[in-house]
Amino acid sequence: MLKIKNLQANIEDKEILKGINLEINPGEVHAIMGPNGSGKSTLSSVIAGKEEYTMTGGEILFEGEDLSELDPEERAHKGIFLSFQYPVEIPGVSVTNFMKASINAHRKAQGLADMPAKDLLKMIRDKSELLEIDRKFLSRSLNQGFSGGEKKRNEIFQMAMLNPKLAILDETDSGLDIDALKVVANGVNKLRSADNSVLLITHYQRLLDYIVPDFVHVMVDGKIVKSGTKELAYELEERGYDWVKPEKTV
Amino acid sequence: MAYTEDDLKKELETKEYEYGFYTDFKSDTFPIGLNEDIVRAISKKKDEPEWMTNWRLEAFREWEKMIEPEWANVHYKKPDFQAISYYSAPQTVDPNKTLDDVDPDLLAMYKKLGISVDEQKKMNNVAMDIVVDSVSVATTFKKTLGEKGIIFMSISDAIKEHPELVKKYLGTVVPQKDNFYAALNSAVFSDGSFCYIPKGVKCPMELSTYFRINQAGTGQFERTLLVADEGSYVSYLEGCTAPSRDENQLHAAVVELIALDDAEIKYSTVQNWYPGNKEGKGGVYNFVTKRGICEKNAKISWTQVETGSAVTWKYPSCILKGDNSIGEFYSIAVTNNFQQADTGTKMIHLGKNTKSTIISKGISAGKSQNSYRGLVQINSRADNARNFSQCDSLLMGNECGAHTFPYIEVKNKTAQVEHEATTSKIGEDQIFYCNQRGIDTEKAIALIVNGFSKEVLNNLPMEFAVEAQKLLEISLEGSVG
């Protein structure tokens, strides 16, 4: 589904990604772990197409198609979803209204008419129940005054609404207490299927207790330095990132 | 590659002012220039009684002594008042004004404006008066309204048919010499709407006036007088457009609202005069005086969506004279390219327990300048007066400006006055977030702007709110920063 070959990317001439290789097949859950500043979040932004990053080498293929020429919204239409580490506030735009705009933009890209209001409301009801979201929450302005947990839960709610082929969860666990983490993880697990893939980006192993990955990759200084199964995460937890760092040539 | 700001700009340049057409019908236009003879001629042309002629002349004499105000935060070449024609009328106006007899060219123009007059006739929730250049050309629903005793007609007709009402109220809220433009308007106003709602009557439909400047080199000076008698209610809408022209056109209107005891007036404006081109050439100078007076327990609510005009100078105000009266001002002012707006309100609290609310949303893009200017005045006898003001500015790009000039004068210790102000910028992060959810940049801006303006849009009557939303989108297309 996603094939990244020797990806290199800069921000303001500073090299962040220094040759990433990664392949994710349908139904797989991958986790990327790494210390702060290793380039994990940059990778998610580059896949989603954030403009301030410049791809300087390599390629990103999604279902065989080169993503580099596509706008962020076109990538979204193809089924790539990014759960943001810091979701933005949009005052005056309710969660419901925002979802309506989002769903209809996706439908338009597929040549479909707007979703009838009745269907949309039903879908919102179903998905909010799935994620134990209070309905009052849906009429509040997007992310405005939301707690850290509410923001992340809202991201997962949007993911449930859009049912993406590839969901990238960027530090979804940060700022969550254990109860909120469980709800979010539970939501993600309910949405897992044989066709959908997940890329988890996280600093800590604890999220992986709840969303169990098929593969774990360790990223250090813009490169994936080690890949393995979920056991790798435990090993990291025990031995710290310094353990993988010596692979860098001195 | 990605859709850039440059692409957006290009797209915007190709998008022209939708209402910028000119309709070629024969019109009767006065020679340029202004003097007592011209004032008399306007009055004569309209077959006015002598008291009206004299009222105009008094105003003219005052105007001659006045100088143009310069305190507003706007910069423009002052109009040459001797180079404007003060009267222009489509020649084929039928004196009886039934829409069936209206000049086909005029009807074609309404069609272009998106006003289907046929529909207007069928729809029974909006009664409409249409003012082209200087005269009122169509007033619909006169009969239906007449049954309730509601008077809704052009002010020219009202001067003839209801002189006692016009004489009693004209100039009582905005006196002839109130300010430079009001004095000019008082001398030369050519038409406008008059509305009277009798005691205890709730007007069953929205009343609406549509203004259009068509002729070149003419000014439009309309006068609106709206009287809501005791315990009555009316909701009134006005809309404005003008052809795209290279020269600046002057629009100096006066609106007076009178809400007697227990009456309520809701006055909504969608102003979309031609804003000038992207280099700042042409466009309408919109110098307008709007004011209402509230008697006991009365309420006046102004809602405005200002997207047009090259220069706007406008402060719809409320004099809260009666005890327990309420004044509200909800405004969205959008400026793009080289537009300049200096707009806001005055809430004058005279009575006890008077309340006012000001919600102002300024959106600036391009190289425009957008100022909020407001006065909240609590006078010594206004015990327990309350005001809440909120002024929010949204900036797009790095070349525009947003300014806030709040004036607060309190002479009574029991007053409660609150003022909140925010300035924000549409961020790349907000746009990217929307993009990631499949929403393209243009739509994302529209969404963010609509969210920002929501509290004001919610105050517009339904049909108007939809139109206003579209107008915001058109006005801001291609202005992401």
Topology, element by element:
The complex is a heterodimer of chains A (250) and B (481).
Chain A: E1 2-11, E2 14-24, E3 29-33, H1 40-48, E4 53-62, E5 65-66, H2 72-77, E6 80-83, E7 90-94, H3 95-109, H4 117-130, E8 141-142, H5 148-162, E9 166-170, H6 178-191, E10 197-202, E11 215-220, E12 223-228, H7 230-239
Parallel strand pairs in A: 3-10, 3-11, 6-9, 9-10
Antiparallel strand pairs in A: 1-2, 1-4, 4-5, 7-8, 11-12
Helix pairs in contact in A: 3-5, 5-6
Chain B: H1 5-14, E1 27-29, H2 36-45, H3 50-65, E2 88-90, H4 104-112, H5 117-122, E3 126-132, E4 135-139, H6 142-147, E5 151-154, H7 155-161, H8 163-169, H9 180-188, E6 193-197, E7 206-212, E8 223-228, E9 233-241, E10 248-251, E11 254-259, E12 264-271, E13 283-294, E14 299-306, E15 311-314, E16 317-320, E17 326-335, E18 340-349, E19 355-364, E20 369-378, E21 386-395, E22 401-410, E23 416-425, H10 428-436, H11 441-457, H12 462-476
Parallel strand pairs in B: 3-7, 6-8, 7-9, 8-11, 9-12, 10-13, 11-13, 12-14, 13-15, 13-16, 14-17, 15-18, 16-18, 17-19, 18-20, 19-21, 20-22, 21-23
Antiparallel strand pairs in B: 1-2, 3-4, 5-6
Structural notes for this entry:
- The complex is a heterodimer of chains A (250) and B (481).
- Chain A is an alpha/beta fold.
- Chain A has one domain (2-94, 162-244): 3-Layer(aba) Sandwich (Rossmann fold).
- Helix content of chain A is 33%, strand content 29%.
- Chain A has helices spanning 40-48, 72-77, 95-109, 117-130, 148-162, 178-191, 230-239, and strands at residues 2-11, 14-24, 29-33, 53-62, 65-66, 80-83, 90-94, 141-142, 166-170, 197-202, 215-220, 223-228.
- In chain A, the strands form 3 sheets. A 6-stranded mixed sheet of chain A has the order 6-9-10-3-11-12, with helices on both faces. Chain A has a 4-stranded antiparallel sheet with strand order 2-1-4-5. A two-stranded antiparallel sheet of chain A has the order 7-8.
- In chain A, helix 3 runs parallel beside helix 5 and helix 5 (148-162) packs parallel to helix 6 (178-191).
- The radius of gyration of chain A is 18 Å and the shape is globular.
- Chain A starts with a strand and ends in an 11-residue tail after the last helix.
- The model of chain A has no long low-confidence stretch (mean pLDDT 91).
- Chain B is an alpha/beta fold and 481 residues long.
- Chain B has one domain (5-476).
- Helix content of chain B is 25%, strand content 34%.
- Chain B has helices at residues 5-14, 36-45, 50-65, 104-112, 117-122, 142-147, 155-161, 163-169, 180-188, 428-436, 441-457, 462-476; strands at 27-29, 88-90, 126-132, 135-139, 151-154, 193-197, 206-212, 223-228, 233-241, 248-251, 254-259, 264-271, 283-294, 299-306, 311-314, 317-320, 326-335, 340-349, 355-364, 369-378, 386-395, 401-410, 416-425.
- In chain B, strands 5, 6, 8, 10, 11, 13, 15, 16, 18, 20 and 22 form an 11-stranded mixed sheet that branches.
- In chain B, a hairpin with a 2-residue loop joins strand 3 (126-132) and strand 4.
- In chain B, helix 2 (36-45) runs antiparallel to helix 3, helix 7 (155-161) crosses helix 8 (163-169) and helix 11 packs across helix 12.
- At the A-B interface, helix 2, strand 7 and helix 3 of A face helix 10 and helix 11 of B.
- Chain B: Belongs to the iron-sulfur cluster assembly SufBD family.
- Chain B: One of its GO terms (biological process) is iron-sulfur cluster assembly.
- Chain B: Residues 211-452 form the SUF system FeS cluster assembly SufBD core domain.
- Chain B: InterPro entries: Fe-S_cluster_assembly_SufBD, SUF_FeS_clus_asmbl_SufB, SUF_FeS_clus_asmbl_SufBD_core, SUF_FeS_clus_asmbl_SufBD_sf, SufBD_N.
- Chain B: It holds the Pfam family SufBD_N.
